[in-house]
Design a protein that fits this description.
Oligomer: single chain
Largest sheet: none
Number of strands: 0
Helix content: 55-70%
Order of helices and strands: HHH
Radius of gyration: 15 Å
Distance between the termini: 40 Å
Strand content: under 5%
Shape: elongated
Number of helices: 3
Structural class: mainly alpha
Number of domains: 1
């Protein structure tokens, strides 16, 4: 469902429109999907043993 939320937001849909089209969603769940995507996009540096 995260990809559905993100795809629709990226296409210009508002949170209210998303909630109307997908009644199980809430503003909180939409924010959670955005936060999850932000977390996945963070770059991390891992030390690799030689």
């Amino acid at each position: 469902m995260v990809s559905v939320v993100l795809d629709n937001l990226a296409a210009g849909m508002t949170a209210k429109e998303l909630i109307k089209d997908y009644p199980p969603l809430t503003e909180q769940s939409i924010r959670a999907a955005i936060a999850y995507a932000a977390e996945l996009s963070h770059e991390r540096v891992l030390a690799v043993p030689a």
